[in-house]
Every structure is written in structure tokens, then in C-alpha cells.
Write a structure and sequence with these properties.
9% of the residues lie in helices and 37% in strands. Residues 33-147, 160-297, 377-514 form the Plastocyanin-like domain.
């Protein structure tokens, strides 16, 4: 099942020596112990989930094509999994770390993730994917640098800061989970936090005249946020692995599960300034602050509190449309990002996905095309691999909204490897929705208010939109994307609103290749855990 920390360390050293002898891409090794511990994000003692006694957890710093060996020891009293938001896991959904692909790590045991950040750059985060653990922490930053010699479209910054921000509850995750299991929605969050702490708990020190990179992720549970730095402009340079046109913003909306990179130049009089995060589209506006301090600071924060946008949807929509792909910049490879002309590829299938909030059996649920997902006792990937009957059925979620009431189902949509999809997310609710697709990046070709129709395609950006893995859908609105299915596996499609996700607003996309070749998908890992109906299958 596992190994002790000392034995695993010896094994990792052997792997490193063998890999070096073969001239493979570099290996990076991590040994993490996941425990409970006391945390005080909003000044109240809570039970948090720590990694190596840290909250947030240790930062992963990698370079394109690195192999990451992450040995996770579960010292909690319940099963645990980590997933890697935005990391593509090429040919390798076995390492995705969601319940549809992996058996949970039992208490007192370990599991070693073996993943490669193949052909990827950019800013991401990892998080606990089971049992509403995300409400207790357990998340951390994940950045992938370009390989030496691959051009980056901006000079090296003087420093690189990670911002993990989002809403937070003072109640323990077990109490929040009980509310949801009882068929109720959660109350409004108690506050916002930045890097695990409330207001003014962190100071980011900069030198006057120098430029710094901030990687900003919304790791919250239920709310969009706006990020800004008092008196300073932000130049956006990267969105979830895509180098962007370098637009300048005063503030930036970051929706649930999203990550942005901006450059900030310390070009103001030397003193302290506020870094501000506020909630978006909420009647009550929450805020959290940190300090942006010049190393030669001549004084503390002065001036009025820098308020930003609050409930304005059009403002956010226009900002989202302004994001553009830098066509001449390199991505993870030296060829320009614009060399992939997504707008000239014919789509092979259109999928319309509409979210809803049905009450089923007297309990609040959330659904996609009327289907509210319920997990099986066996990971879908294992059931598919071993051809175990009775776990799921292909086609158990329709391609289009049904207009009917909600129902419970272990929903799996089938799709063909190398298909090129048009996916339209339709949000009929009064709140902003945020969607993530594991294993893939997609091109956000359009978004607007009202009902999507075929005529909406006339407004698509088929030249220079960004590609990413998490996208927002505004209230009573739609968002359309083009997505190449270039990654075989079982992939989670989910709401990044963690209440909606937990209560069923997700499903799995089975991208299938009949070739059964290692060129398309890696074989099952030798250390794969078995559970449910997969126990005894080897």
C-alpha cells in the first residue's frame, strides 16, 4: 500500500540516479505529510488541513517537461486526495487526483503521484478534491517556468509573488459538509483571506523602480473576487498558461478557480500601499488587505480605501473580452502561440451545458442538463479500465439542455480523441458560474448576455482569444469555447463553485481512443490504489 518516509526517500534517490543516467527530463521530489492543525484565518481558532505543517501548503516550482514525484502521506482521520487545477496531465488522467480517476488515500497510508508538466508553462494551484476538504485549506501554489532558451515576452521580474485568495468560513469543513449533506445551501462567507490569513497579515516588500510578478488565484468556495494594488497599474502577461497581450488594468476580476499573472512596477513615492481583494456580485462586500511595502518606505498607508467594482456585470464582461492571446510570443515551445489557428478548424460536435438548481428528494442539489452527479463507490477510470459493469453508463448525460426536472446519476459523456468541440455553457441562474475542465485547455471564443443561438457564432473571436482551463459564465448569460480533445482519459468537468460541485454540478468526459496505445495514454500506474468494485483487479 505504501512505504515509510525514510524508505520512500531512498527509493526516490534510486529513481533519480536511474533517470539521470538515461538523460530524461529532470525530476523533482516532494514528500508531504497531510495533517490537521490549528489555524486562525479570520482570528478564530479552526481545524485546518496542513501540508508539512504549512497553510497554504508548499509551493511547487517546476520547469516545462519536469517530472514531479509527490509522495503524499495521509495523517488525517478520513480519506484524502489532492488534485492539480489546470495541470493538463497529458496522457495521464491516472494522476488527476479526483474521485472519478483515483481511489482516495486511506488514513495512515500514502500515495505517490508521478506526473509530468509536459508542454506547459504558467500559474496554477493544487487543492484537496474530496469531502469539502478545500474549506479547511490544504491548497498551495503551482508554477511552471519556461525552459532555458525559450523566449518569454517580458524581462525577468525582480521578484515573483503568489497570491492565493478567496472567501472563507469560520466553521470547520465538517460542519459545512453536514449543512450540505442535510440538503441546505451554505450561508454567506464570513470573510476573505489572502495566503491563509485575514487583513494586513502579509507584507510584500519591493524595491523602488523594479518590476514584480504577481500570480493571483481565486481558491475560494463560492465568490468571485476583484484584485488591485493601491496607486499602481497592473500589466497582465499570462492566463493559465497563455501569454497574453499586455493590457494594463487598475483592477482585475478573478473568478472561482482562475489564475492570472500580472506585472507591477514600484513606480510611486516610497511608502506602504494596500493590496486589496473584495468580493464581486454580492450584496454585502467583503474585503481583505495585505501591504505592498517599498523597501525604502517613508511611511504607512495613506489616502482613501481603494474601492473597486462591486455588482457591475458589464464592467467584468468587457474586461473578460479584452483579454487577448499574444500571437507572436512563444508558449512552452519556441513556435509562436498564433501558429495554432483554432478559428480555421471545423468543429465536429456542439455540446450545450446548462446549469440548474433543482430540489431532489427534498434536498437542494445542483445539476448540468438536469443531471445531478452522484459519485459511485468505484473510480470511473478504474471501472472503465477493468470493464466493471454497473458503475456508470456512457451517454448518461445529454449533449443539450432537457428543460426537465433534475435527477441523480453518475453521469459520463463519451467523446472521441482528436475531436474538436464547440462547448456552450448556459447560465440561467442569477449568480456568476465558473467552469473548469480537467486535462484540457480551451479557447474562449465568445460570451454575452441572454440566450445562446446559432447566430451567436457571428460574434465569436476566431483569431486571438486566450486559451485556459477555467472560465466564468455571467448571470442569465452564455460562454462559448472551442476545445481540441487532444488528451485521452477520464476528465472531470465541474463547477468551481464548491457548493455546486459538491451537490452535483459536475460530470466526467471520457475521451476515448480505440488504438489502446501508449502514444495516446499511459498504462495504469503500478502503485494505483484499488477500492470499491476494483478491489482484487490487477
Amino acid at each position: 500500500m505504501g512505504c515509510s518516509m525514510r524508505v520512500c526517500s531512498v527509493l526516490f534517490l534510486v529513481v533519480l540516479l536511474v533517470a539521470s543516467a538515461r538523460g530524461e527530463d529532470p525530476y523533482r521530489f516532494y514528500t508531504w505529510n497531510v495533517t490537521y492543525g490549528d489555524i486562525y484565518p479570520l482570528g478564530v481558532k479552526q481545524q485546518g488541513i496542513l501540508i508539512n505543517w504549512q497553510f497554504p501548503g508548499p509551493q511547487i516550482e517546476a520547469v516545462t517537461n519536469d517530472n514531479l514525484i509527490i509522495n503524499v502521506f495521509n495523517s488525517l482521520d478520513e480519506p484524502f486526495l489532492l488534485s492539480w487545477n489546470g495541470v493538463l496531465q497529458r496522457r495521464n488522467s491516472w494522476q488527476d487526483g479526483v474521485y472519478g480517476t483515483n481511489c482516495p488515500i486511506p488514513p495512515g497510508h500514502n500515495f505517490t503521484y508521478v506526473l509530468q508538466v509536459k508542454d506547459q508553462i504558467g500559474s496554477y494551484f493544487y487543492y484537496p478534491s474530496l469531502a469539502f476538504h478545500k474549506a479547511a485549506g490544504g491548497y498551495g501554489g503551482f508554477k511552471i517556468a519556461s525552459r532555458p532558451g525559450i523566449p518569454v515576452p517580458f524581462p525577468p521580474p525582480a521578484g515573483d509573488f503568489t497570491i492565493l485568495a478567496g472567501d472563507w468560513y469560520k466553521r470547520n469543513h465538517t460542519d459545512l459538509r453536514a449543512i450540505l449533506d442535510g440538503g441546505n445551501d451554505l450561508p454567506f462567507p464570513d470573510g476573505l483571506i489572502i495566503n491563509g490569513r485575514g487583513s494586513n497579515a502579509y507584507t510584500f516588500t519591493v524595491d523602488q523602480g523594479k518590476t514584480y510578478r504577481f500570480r493571483i488565484s481565486n481558491v475560494g468556495l463560492t465568490t468571485s473576487i476583484n484584485f488591485r494594488i493601491q496607486g499602481h497599474k497592473m500589466t497582465i502577461v499570462e492566463v493559465e498558461g497563455t501569454h497574453t497581450l499586455q493590457n494594463i488594468y487598475d483592477s482585475l476580476d478573478v473568478h472561482l478557480g482562475q489564475t492570472y499573472s500580472v506585472l507591477v512596477t514600484a513606480d510611486q513615492p516610497p511608502q506602504d500601499y494596500l493590496i486589496v481583494v473584495t468580493t464581486r456580485f454580492t450584496s454585502q462586500v467583503l474585503n481583505a488587505t495585505s501591504i505592498f511595502r517599498y523597501s525604502n518606505s517613508g511611511g504607512s498607508v495613506t489616502g482613501l480605501f481603494p474601492w473597486g467594482p462591486t455588482i457591475q456585470v458589464d464592467w467584468s464582461l468587457n474586461q473578460a473580452r479584452s483579454l487577448r492571446r499574444n500571437l507572436t510570443a512563444s508558449g512552452p515551445r519556441p513556435n509562436p502561440q498564433g501558429s495554432y489557428r483554432y478559428g480555421m478548424i471545423n468543429t465536429t460536435r456542439t455540446i450545450r451545458l446548462q446549469n440548474s438548481a433543482p430540489v431532489i428528494n427534498g434536498k437542494q442539489r445542483y445539476a448540468v442538463n438536469s443531471v445531478s452527479f452522484i459519485p459511485s463507490d468505484t473510480p470511473l477510470k478504474l471501472a472503465d479500465y477493468y470493464k466493471i459493469q454497473g458503475v456508470f453508463s456512457l451517454g448518461s448525460i445529454p449533449d443539450n439542455p432537457t428543460g426537465g426536472g433534475g435527477y441523480l446519476q453518475t453521469s459520463v459523456m463519451e467523446a472521441d480523441f482528436r475531436a474538436f468541440l464547440e462547448v456552450v455553457f448556459e447560465n440561467t441562474e442569477d449568480t456568476v458560474e465558473s467552469w473548469h475542465i480537467d486535462g484540457h485547455s480551451f479557447f474562449v471564443v465568445g460570451m454575452d448576455g441572454g440566450q445562446w443561438s446559432q447566430a451567436s457564432r457571428l460574434s465569436y473571436n476566431l483569431r486571438d482569444t486566450i486559451s485556459r482551463s477555467t472560465v466564468q459564465v455571467y448571470p442569465k448569460s452564455w460562454t462559448a469555447l472551442y476545445m481540441p480533445l487532444d488528451n485521452v482519459g477520464m476528465w472531470n468537468v465541474r463547477s468551481e463553485n464548491w457548493v455546486h460541485q459538491y451537490l452535483g454540478q459536475q460530470f466526467y468526459l471520457r475521451v476515448y481512443s480505440p488504438a489502446n496505445s501508449w502514444r495516446d495514454e499511459y498504462p495504469i500506474p503500478s502503485n494505483a490504489l484499488r477500492c470499491g468494485k476494483a478491489v482484487g483487479h490487477y
